[in-house]
Specification:
Oligomer: single chain
Helix content: over 70%
Structural class: mainly alpha
Largest sheet: none
Number of strands: 0
Order of helices and strands: HHHHHHHHHHHHHHHHHHHHH
Shape: globular
Distance between the termini: 49 Å
Length: about 500
């Protein structure tokens, strides 16, 4: 009798221990199944796919937090921040990087596993100071507390991606995993961009509204050619560097061909700022890899010359007209003068974060032969990222925001001779990571890139990789590629 009771108690304890492990996933699956069935039945198939992937995505991020950045790179460029897709942006852009950063910080604090060493310094301090200054600017000068969410989307999420990369301190094997992502995203953006130009009817409705804004230019899944060119610049340099450091000839050829297609698509943006950014990237690649870059450039030029006299004659004629036009230049002269006058009126603290369009109409005036139009006064906005920052947050805000870039650029020149000359992890990689930052700075002179979420995030991601690479070689003894990482252990 006693034995039976003991066995009964054991069975009860066994059920108590195993029921949560076995029952909760079943209940979760049933609940998600009903929700997914409802969403699919009502046409929200993309949202249903996103929810179905939440659980495996969460497991992946916990086990490999760098996957949060990889997921962001693959998904966010293709999802518009409108309608039913807002939840995707909430999960992937606003929540995922922050959650991954919290996981890393908790893991480091509790020493749950070994972590690569990392030190914060003046660059990160300047970023924190800018974030605090921007919040105070909104609270003091702003007319809506919603501007804090705008600040989070445009600035704090890129900062979070930067810090996530800094704490993870990814190495060569991690960066090599970005090359297939660059291949996938770059090729998809080129195909979508060209289809939106030649056959927009075959594209899913998710990208129709974006293609209609600039019907005469290639913009991919974005609403501005400058944003498109900036994103392509990031992916094309990773592709080319990965191609130059691969043993397989077939894969190397595929990477180079996609990179060449991206160059063509940047040309088809028919935007002078994009062309200049593309030339800057090609010049950098020509310096790093002279023969392959020259061969690829000559091939692209030869193909362009052939199609310019036949298949794409009208498109090249349009490119020539775009190069000669000065209508948009006059508009931007008027609007840039208004931003300059705003800055001179309040040079230190500016007019408040996200307040540019609230006050710029007061400062619009005729500049030489360039007269303001009704559109300039009613709808015109800044076409220069850093002029906007000067007008909104003054010279203090711009210096705080720019300091990390200047800091790591100066240290780059200091450590560059210490890096290996050849290989994937080399001084070439360090220069490669700076090229998309330079392209972003170029296109930022003709459009306010802070209205768009993808390019600033990619720039701060690149800067985080630069910071880790530079910091390792700042130590006198650090003269080789890091393979093992010393970890501080708890003492008793």
């Amino acid at each position: 009798m006693i034995t039976k009771c003991l066995r009964r108690d054991e069975r009860r304890n066994c059920w108590a221990q195993q029921l949560p492990a076995a029952g909760l996933p079943v209940l979760l699956g049933l609940g998600l199944g009903v929700l997914l069935a409802y969403l699919v039945a009502n046409g929200y198939w993309l949202l249903a796919c996103g929810i179905a992937l939440l659980v495996p995505m969460a497991i992946l991020v916990v086990r490999y937090p760098f996957a949060a950045v990889m997921i962001w790179l693959v998904v966010v460029p293709f999802v518009p921040f409108v309608g039913q897709y807002k939840l995707v942006y909430w999960v992937l852009h606003r929540a995922l990087p922050l959650i991954a950063l919290v996981i890393i910080l908790v893991s480091r604090a509790l020493r749950l596993k070994e972590h690569r060493p990392m030190r914060l310094g003046p660059a990160e301090l300047a970023m924190a100071a800018f974030g605090i200054a921007a919040v105070l600017s909104i609270l003091v000068f702003g007319d809506s507390i919603k501007s804090i969410l705008t600040l989070y989307d445009r600035t704090l999420v890129p900062f979070t991606i930067y810090l996530l990369v800094r704490f993870l301190n990814p190495r060569e094997e991690d960066l090599r995993r970005l090359v297939p992502i660059a291949l996938l995203v770059g090729f998809a953006e080129c195909v979508i961009g060209l289809l939106s130009w030649f056959a927009p009817q075959v594209l899913p409705s998710i990208w129709h509204s974006r293609a209609e804004i600039f019907g005469d230019r290639v913009t991919g899944t974005f609403t501005q050619p400058e944003v498109y060119a900036s994103v392509l610049a990031f992916h094309m340099v990773l592709l080319f560097h990965g191609a130059m450091n691969r043993a397989g000839r077939l894969m190397r050829t595929a990477l180079i061909l996609v990179m060449g297609l991206e160059v063509v698509c940047i040309f088809f943006t028919f935007t002078r700022g994009c062309w200049l950014a593309g030339l800057l990237v090609l010049a950098g690649l020509l310096y790093l890899y002279p023969k392959p870059t020259l061969s690829l450039t000559l091939l692209v030029v030869a193909v362009a010359f052939i199609v310019s006299t036949g298949l794409l004659a009208s498109e090249f004629a349009h490119a020539y007209e775009r190069f000669k036009t000065d209508t948009t230049i006059q508009d931007r002269i008027v609007l840039a003068n208004a931003g300059k006058r705003m800055f001179f009126a309040r040079p230190l603290l500016g007019w408040g974060y996200d307040n540019y369009d609230r006050y710029d109409w007061r400062f619009i005036e005729r500049v030489g032969n360039a007269a303001p139009t009704t559109w300039d006064i009613q709808s015109g906005t800044s076409h220069n990222t850093y002029l906007t920052m000067l007008a909104e947050m003054g010279v203090i805000g711009l210096l705080l925001y720019s300091f990390p870039v200047l800091w790591w650029l100066c240290l780059t020149f200091r450590v560059l001779p210490r890096l290996p000359k050849e290989g994937f992890w080399s001084r070439r990689l360090l220069v490669i990571l700076w090229l998309p930052v330079g392209a972003y700075l170029v296109v930022s002179q003709s459009v306010d890139m802070r209205f768009f979420l993808d390019p600033p995030t990619l720039v701060w991601f690149s800067l985080g990789l630069v910071a880790n690479l530079v910091q390792h070689y700042l130590e006198p003894e650090s003269i080789s590629v890091p393979t093992r990482f010393p970890v501080a252990r708890r003492t008793t």
